[in-house]
Design brief:
The complex is a heterodimer of chains A (474) and B (486). Chain A is 40% helix and 20% strand. Chain A is an alpha+beta fold. Chain A has 3 domains: 3-286, no CATH class; 294-398, no CATH class; 415-472, Orthogonal Bundle (Arc Repressor Mutant, subunit A). Chain A is elongated and about 95 Å long. The termini of chain A are far apart. In chain B, β2, α4 and β3 form a beta-alpha-beta unit. In chain B, strands 1-3-2-4-6-5-10-11-9-7-8 form an 11-stranded mixed beta sheet, with helices on both faces. In chain B, α9 crosses α12. Chain B is of the alpha/beta class and 486 residues long. Chain B starts with 9 loop residues before the first helix and ends in an 8-residue tail after the last helix. The relative contact order of chain B is 0.14. Classes of the chains: A alpha+beta (474), B alpha/beta (486). The interface between A and B is large, with 29 and 45 residues.
Chain lengths: 474, 486
């Protein structure tokens, strides 16, 4: 029997705020254990939470990016359970009145475009980090209280591939909105996934299992593949799926039962009495909406229309907001946007990948790239020189025109000088000339190369080819 | 000149200090002497750091000699063991917080400090402010200074006993369902529960977050006004504190009640009330009438549901608030645990007393899936009705007069075995917390058995000036109430 897969995701995203959700401690990652702590985030007796308004703005921004309805009345609730990483043994979260409701994230898988439905986005506080040593355990509370946004999707994905595409598209949106660094190594994005199978033709969803705490996208993908395979096998051999929470083991590449439905927590949600409800005025939301960055998919369409780029190129540029920003800044300074795109997509990305660098740390400014392109277009330099110059600018920065003048890189386009090099090359390569004349047209390329070498790379290759062809003509 | 601490009010002592008739050091020494002399019997204090108190006093004297100002410069104040004072213990009278030392000042404490007050001694209470007799302290029994076989009331029993017993000029308490007003009534001192949001709760170990308020217990109404004025006002650390201007409360203390309308809630004069209590209250009402107030009868029709509502809301919030006491970060941790859950179980089983456990279990139950709507949600709805009752009543009058408690203080152990009966004694005080309004307890006489009776004056939210004015005018007419008989 054939089974249909249904997948839903809960994505926890750490927001890019300076301070924690309910106190003024730094939310920065990587400090020595328990140095970003205070009585509030340690859950000392008598302390009270105070809302971080920036976290609310960033959550609403995310909602606006994906077309959520922004709640004009929202509130925090206490979610109770005991665990050493919970300073108060309740987490301040949002239960029935989240900040954002609904919305969609567009994905493309196998050439098909789909809009994945979002259920809600709510705001909560992150928990601490338990560390286990040989015979003892410790808790690092630096992370406790960091603003955490939870994006819950509808069970709307039909394959692990779609789930992965969803996460990538979501990450792109979050980076565009500037709401999170989305640094997976630092645990900025963590996922709970649920999956169920049902026989083809059946409407009702099958029994689902949940896999908690996946902190890489690859992990989500593999865990889902494994879980779908496990459920398929179970069902095909006549078994039934138990509703349960499972754990993904990276080392064995399999999922294991963590707790069954019977052991599920009763979180005893009730409204947080220490915080006032969040009431957002229409004007406030509209002000935030006005400052909204362009969605990646809109930007891609615009790049095609405005700069005449191929779909593919626009897609590559838009994938990373910083790269797209760089492209636009340079493109605005030249009339040759296609050349900017070519430079960014080839030389720039190659060098960035080679050095494992971010475009923001490359020394070549958008203005310099635009200059470089102008020099090529005006035939001041030829393209091999331009390539060398790009590498220099990438490394050290500077003004291309000044470098050309300083190092005498200007292209030789004086016909007399080129003719002299051509004559020299013809004289020194009688055999090649003979080959050419006997019909081996490829031999001309060798001669062009020789001329370029003689000109120390500065001759205009097009001019060289034209003169060479004229001189060799029978 | 030696300072006589018995019956000394804060405002009188400030005059003595200002006119150099005594020093802060002599005041603190007198308080320490009184504690040393009597507290073995009364048991108001859990701990007193004498050295620190004298150090603070000397600093205050030095500041004063250098022209330093401060509305409470050099005045020692006892603090209920539920409030955080930097460097002092804060056990909440619970074994589970043994060894915990506060790393920070509660906002109310910081404001007292900023005006030069000396924070001297931690006073006893019912564990985590849960109780009406201070018998639920894990550490000691506190006795009523008027009759040492009787309870001082609770949960701020140590605060009330320290003031009434002449062991403190004034004390801080907290009131979640009557915990300031009732012990003040039992011990014959003044107790003020401000409106919810008037004083920041930051630093007050939470029992029930939507009901808790800090307030002063004092010898007279003027002192209550003075301390309220120092502690009141919005605080950025407490989102439930309200940004309203703080009036000069002492200016509202006139000597008459002309032009005021005072309501008697019909439902607060019920069958089963002690006859001596009722007599004293009725007499006080007549005094208010004689001071020029117009007395009317009003109705608070949902009063009968108040105790049930209170015990659902308060325990639900407490069950979450007390979850943090787990032995992981501070306080007591039980040994011999096999895993974290076992550590929680053992720590909490050994660290909490019976009443606290009873309320945590009750609160956990009312919030449980499937019961939430029937209990917590219903209680919130009734709470709105109770609030509406008061709003309607305050459209007709400026303040309400009622007893604080249906009885005067009772004997130690008398109700300890019957929690339900004890809860019912809260009927006349829990409503103010549910509605968020302010309330004042002023001594208004003695029973035949020689125990104080408290007159409760309730006012609209953020109209503390109304109840302080009534309390002060009544107090002036009543005359000196005196200190507990020695």
């Amino acid at each position: 029997m054939k089974y249909l897969t249904t997948i839903g995701l809960e994505v926890h995203v750490q927001l890019k705020t300076h301070s924690k959700m309910f106190c003024s401690c730094s939310a920065a990652y990587g400090a020595p254990p328990n140095t970003h702590v205070c009585p509030v985030c340690l859950g000392y007796p008598g302390v009270l939470p105070v809302m971080n308004e920036e976290a609310i703005r960033l959550t609403v921004l995310t909602g606006l990016m994906i077309g959520s309805r922004i709640s004009d009345y929202s509130k925090f609730d206490r979610k109770s359970y005991f665990y050493p990483d919970m300073p108060k043994n309740y987490q301040i979260s949002q239960y029935d009145k989240p900040l954002c409701i609904g919305g969609t994230v567009r994905i493309e898988v196998g050439g098909h475009t789909r809009d994945i439905e979002i259920t809600r986005i709510h705001l909560e506080e992150d928990v601490a980090k338990n560390m286990h040593f040989l015979s003892t355990s410790g808790v690092d509370f630096n992370r406790a209280g960091v603003p955490l946004m939870e994006i819950v999707s509808e069970p709307d994905m039909t394959s692990p591939e779609e789930a992965l595409a969803f996460l990538l598209a979501l990450k792109q949106i979050l980076l565009y909105a500037g709401v999170s660094e989305c640094n997976l190594e630092e645990g900025n994005v963590r996922c709970d996934v649920n999956a169920s199978l049902r026989p083809e033709g059946q409407k009702e969803l099958g029994t689902k299992t949940e896999i908690k705490n996946l902190n890489t996208f690859k992990g989500v993908y593999h865990a889902l593949q494994q879980e779908v395979a496990r459920q398929t096998e179970t069902l095909q051999s006549g078994g039934t799926i138990q509703q349960e929470t499972r754990r993904w083991d990276v080392d064995t590449g399999a999922t294991y039962t963590m707790r069954s439905k019977e052991d599920a927590h009763d979180y005893r949600y009730f409204p947080e009495p220490d915080l006032m409800p969040i009431v957002l005025s229409r004007e406030q939301v509209e002000t935030w909406r006005a400052g909204l960055p362009e969605l990646p998919r809109n930007r891609r369409e615009r790049f095609v229309a405005q700069y005449g780029l191929p779909e593919y190129d626009a897609g590559v540029l838009v994938a990373d907001k910083a790269i797209a920003d760089y492209f636009e800044e340079a493109a605005r300074l030249t009339s040759n946007a296609k050349a900017v795109s070519n430079w960014v997509m080839t030389e720039m990305l190659r060098l960035l990948t080679e050095r494992e660098m971010d475009i923001r740390s490359a020394r070549i400014e958008p203005k310099a790239l635009a200059e470089l392109i102008k020099l090529v277009d005006k035939k001041v330099i030829n393209s091999p020189t331009a390539k060398e110059l790009f590498a220099v600018l990438f490394e050290k920065g500077g003004d291309p025109a000044a470098l050309v003048a300083q190092q005498g890189l200007g292209q030789v386009s004086d016909a007399g000088a080129i003719e002299a090099f051509v004559d020299q090359a013809i004289a020194a390569n009688a055999k090649v000339v003979a080959d050419y004349r006997s019909g081996k047209k490829a031999a001309a390329q060798f001669l062009v190369g020789q001329v370029m070498r003689l000109s120390k790379g500065k001759a205009d290759p097009q001019q060289v080819t034209a003169i060479l062809e004229r001189k060799l003509a029978p | 000149m030696p300072f006589n601490v018995a019956n000394a009010t804060v405002h009188d002592t400030l005059k003595l200090l200002d006119s150099r008739q005594c020093t802060s050091e002599s005041v603190v020494r007198a308080v320490l002497d009184a504690i040393r002399r009597q507290d073995g019997e009364i048991g108001a204090y859990l701990s007193v750091d004498e050295e620190d108190g004298l150090r603070q006093a000397k600093a205050a004297d030095k500041a004063r000699s250098e022209g330093g100002k401060g509305r409470l410069l050099g005045i020692p104040i006892a603090v209920k063991d539920v409030l955080n004072v930097r460097g002092q213990p804060c056990t909440c009278a619970s074994l589970i917080l043994q060894g915990y030392v506060s790393p920070y000042d509660a906002t109310a404490v910081a404001r007292l400090r900023a005006e030069g007050a000396i924070l001297l001694g931690r006073v006893n209470m019912d564990e985590f402010a849960m109780g009406s007799t201070t018998e639920n302290s894990a550490f000691k029994i506190t006795r009523n200074p008027w009759n040492r076989d009787c309870v001082p009331g609770g949960s701020s029993g140590g605060s009330a006993a320290s003031v009434a017993g002449g062991e403190a000029l004034a004390a801080l308490g907290s009131d979640t369902g009557g915990s300031i007003r009732q012990p003040a009534a039992f011990c014959g001192c003044v107790g003020l529960k401000p409106s919810y949001g008037r004083i920041s709760r930051y630093g007050l170990t939470a029992f029930a977050s939507s009901l808790d308020q800090i307030g002063p217990l004092t010898h007279d109404v003027r002192d209550a006004a003075l301390l309220l004025g120092v502690m009141a006002g919005v605080d950025e650390r407490d989102s439930s504190s309200v940004d309203l201007p703080v009036p000069d409360y002492e200016r509202s203390l006139t000597n008459d009640l002309r032009g005021m309308k005072l309501g008697l809630p019909r439902e607060y004069f019920v069958a089963g009330m002690d006859r001596d209590v009722e007599k004293a209250i009725r007499a006080a009402v007549e005094q208010c009438r004689a001071l020029g107030a117009e007395i009317i009868e009003v109705s608070l029709p949902h009063t009968e549901y108040a105790v049930a509502t209170y015990y659902v809301v308060a325990t639900a919030e407490a069950s979450a608030n007390l979850a943090r006491f787990d032995g992981v970060r501070y306080g007591f941790r039980a040994g011999g645990a096999e895993d974290p859950i076992d550590m929680y179980s053992k720590t909490r089983a050994q660290g909490f007393g019976a009443e606290v456990k009873r309320r945590i279990i009750l609160g956990t139950y009312v919030l449980s899936s499937g019961y939430y709507d029937a209990y917590y949600l219903s209680a919130q709805k009734v709470r709105t009705l109770i609030r509406n009752d008061f709003e309607a009543a305050f459209k007709q009058c400026d303040a309400l007069l009622a007893p604080v408690s249906p009885t005067a203080a009772y004997r130690i152990g008398e109700k300890a075995g019957n929690p339900l009966q004890m809860y019912l004694g809260d009927i006349l005080t829990v409503t103010a917390n549910l509605a968020g309004i302010c309330g004042l307890s002023v001594p208004c006489g003695l029973t035949g058995g020689g125990l104080p009776v408290g007159l409760q004056i309730l006012g609209p939210a953020f109209k503390e000036e109304n109840i302080l004015r009534v309390g002060h005018a009544y107090e002036q007419r009543r005359g000196a109430f005196g200190l507990a008989a020695k």
